[in-house]
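For this section, I looked closely at the sequence of one protein beside the tokens encoding its backbone, which the following lines show:
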Amino acid sequence: MSSTSQAPSSGARTAHPDHLGHVIFIAAAAAMGGFLFGYDSSVINGAVEAIRDRYDVGSAVLAQVIAVALIGCAIGAATAGRIADRIGRIRCMQIAAVLFTVSAVGSALPFALWDLAMWRVIGGFAIGMASVIGPAYIAEVSPPAYRGRLGSFQQAAIVIGIAVSQLVNWGLLNAAGGDQRGELMGLEAWQVMLGVMVIPAVLYGLLSFAIPESPRFLISVGKRERAKKILEEVEGRDVDFDARVTEIEHAMHSEEKSSFKDLLGGSFFFRPIVWIGIGLSVFQQFVGINVAFYYSSTLWQSVGVDPTDSFFYSFTTSIINIIGTMIAMIFVDRVGRKPLALIGSVGMVIGLALEAWAFSFDLVDGKLPATQGWVALIAAHVFVLFFALSWGVVVWVFLGEMFPNRIRAAALGVAASAQWIANWAITASFPSLADWNLSGTYVIYTIFAALSIPFVLKFVKETKGKALEEMG
């Protein structure tokens, strides 16, 4: 699915103030998919130990149930573009909203472990769709002058969704007396945690009926007049909309459809630039960031932190994630992508190394010694902060900018697939690795964070301030 046409003539570069509020509402409504992306990705954090206990499963099986959603994510992301090009962006959002709702209800009321895994895959498919549709739709309806800021709504919504899920989990755990399997509303607390997602899922679906279809899609199916009316709603009245529609049509016809075959070349199967994109995606995941969002409650409980406190620390980590993301959004165009990535890598090495050191100490009465406990807690927040202000945002900016026009769509698809696969590898392996040696696991993540520094220095080129046509 294409993202947007070239920037229009100068008359269309700014939206009138009375239109801007409407455009912000449209972008915010579309970004609800990002909120659900973040919420559904991390809400499982509150249910991990309860699922282990209820179904009496070991770490390896538990990890597969947690990680299986990522298979759905990969499929959803791979197919969403084609679905949206065929039936429209809004219909695609509505399908995702239905899948989020079905997944929430099914996950809250599972018969057994196998169907819980199935509902997780369905939710993952919705996440994958939302990860593609939201940014593309926002880009297509935003006036060029505001596209960058409105586009950042998606990433902001994701990190807010993560934080809200942890806050809700913490509140529900307190309501259940600190027991993940405690009774709450006739169910166990963890079931309610997973079921609460019905509320934002239904809201997402309702909002999708209140926003217009993408003008670009309407033009692609021949609905020029409807497209002109929507362009007038979002870009103001002082524009030649016949010329604007013609411009979009010309841009769509001139775009080349990149294919997987276009990525081949060089002595290592893919072109070097494609391998660099894959490397960025893999390093982003191999530092272990999703352990902080899928397993943090389990992690803290494993070193003796009270369950209620462990949920609270998961929430504070999510707040740090939001702060870091906001810092990145402010500085990515000022400082540049490459310096921000390097700063983040150094900070992550420090945070992860301190966590590895703290977890290397033996537990005393089931807990880490006080000093090591505080070091582990602070270091975990430092790690998330430096990830969020750098790699969490910068990698997606790089992937959107670094590839030549002719292969951009296909190369981005390969790099994004590598990211989901790397995410799955970390998510599926953590429980077993932690059982083996928690400190050793964090040493592995520290090594990958350290290796990311020479990788960026040697292979990654700065893309700040360059036109997309300059990428080669």
About this structure: Strands lie at 183-184, 187-188. Confidence is low (pLDDT under 50) at residues 2-15. The longest strand covers residues 183-184. The chain is about 75% helix and 0% strand.
